Amino acid sequence: MSDNNLLSTEQLLALDKQHIWHPYASMIDAPPVYPVVSARGVRLKLADGTELIDGLSSWWSAIHGYNHPVLNQAAKEQLEAMSHVMFGGITHPSAVKLAKLLVDITPPTLNKVFFSDSGSVAVEVAIKMALQYWYSMGRKEKQQLLTLKNGYHGDTFGAMATCDPVTGMHHMFSEALPKHLFADAPRTRFGDEFDETDISSFKRLIEKNHQSLAAVILEPIVQGAGGMNFYSPDYLKRVRQLCNEYDVLLIADEIATGFGRTGKLFACEHANIEPDILCLGKCLTGGYLSLAATLCNDKVANGICQGEAGVFMHGPTFMANPLATAIAYASVQLLLSQDWQQLVKNLETQLLAGLSPAKAFDTVNDVRVLGSIGVIELKQPVDMAVIQKQLVDRGIWVRPFGKLVYTIPPYIIGDEDIATLTAGLVDIVKN
Question: Which long-range contacts (CB under 8 A, 24 or more apart) does 317-321 make?
Fold first, then answer.
């Protein structure tokens, strides 16, 4: 590229403001965006030379930080062989190796893997699997899903329909979405003694509606974008028991919680339960490329393939992209090669110590930490434009929403950086 084609920072930002629609942002009064020119370790470098400690792992995904030599090498080697090939009637080594690895580390009965492009699509695939399973079983009336209030499962239409229809981000689409059932969100907090009345709403709905229910879908242990609620593993155990009792499939959406975020490799392990279908994404590739996977057991796979269609009716163009699967395989192997449990435990300890002073503030409703997830819940919603600038001015990058100021840093973050990150968050919510 010649120098004549290079954009100044001012030109880049002007063109961005004119043409690019950012997530959950307005095109009329667009909020400021920050031009990142490089990223390494846990730092994002802006065009003006400012460096920010990334406290969000690029929305949960960059668990190893940025520009990791192992993942870079995996990308280079795969790029030299092939960057992409269709997956219909074709296979390739990185997809096969990744599938086998995922089968090995997830609950034992999950032995079939369907790759897709993103977390939302992984949820669409899971819902489609559940519906097609019951159709194949001759139970065409089982078309509904049961899920939880305060849940979040993605921005595509099938996924949106399972997000909280009142407090979620998609209520304006409610008339166009399929109608599902929503149990009260779990109230018993992680680590507290379980209150059996907590499951009563869910139990009442599954008892009354099981004949029409294809599946339950939920986020195990941690409800993410719907409120960062950390709930009791005993609730999850009761859900699995009731799904078994009433012949309803269980879908675990571990797109955010998978690969160690909660202190277990997968959040279902806190309750020692196995779902029928499991959704994975986000940090699957260590934040390098978009990739997701939906795993299921033999019951679901055989039921679908013995039915009318004989095949699962789905097939993304970029399914099992070789570049993405090669990096994902390297990323998961990198995670497993380390004492990741200790890394996450250390993060949990430091997040709790660093964020706990905020409990004393009148503006703060709660502070909670689980694994590498730290949350300050305020009493009033934040002013995004104001708080984002305050954070950047302090050299940290997080993206608050609603009443929640939260951090999910890369596992590699050092003690000094985590102290700077938590101190900055506490200082900002104090004012």
Answer: 317/86, 318/84, 318/117, 319/87, 319/114, 319/115, 319/116, 319/117, 320/87, 320/92, 320/95, 320/115, 321/83, 321/84, 321/289, 321/291
Active site residue 253: yes
Within-domain flag for 28: no
Give me the mean pLDDT over the 56-66 stretch: 98
Is 14 inside any structural domain? no
Report if residue 179 sits inside a domain: yes
d(CA 61, CA 282): 5
Q: Where does residue 191 rank: exposed (0-12), middle (13-18), buried (19+ CB within 10 A)? A: exposed
Q: Which of 54, 253, 276, 417 is catalytic?
A: 253
Nearest to residue 54, comparing CAs of 335, 373, 395, 383?
395
235 is catalytic: no
Full-model pTM: 0.97
> Which of 314, 297, 311, 307 lies closest to 134 in space, CA to CA?
307
Q: Which domain holds residue 303?
A: 71-337
From CA 345, how far away is CA 327, in angstroms rounded? 25
Question: Residue 303 phi/psi, 5° resolution?
Answer: -60, -45
112, 203, 282, 403: the active-site residue: 282
User: What contacts 80, CB < 8 A, 6 or more positions away?
Assistant: none
246 is catalytic: no
Place of tokens 């430091």: 350
Domain count, the chain: 2
The answer on 83 and 43 residing in a single domain is no
The 10s digit of each residue's pLDDT in 279-299 is: 999 999 999 999 999 999 999
Sign of the Cα torsion 169, 172, 175, 181 reads: positive
Is 152 labeled as catalytic in the residue annotation?
yes
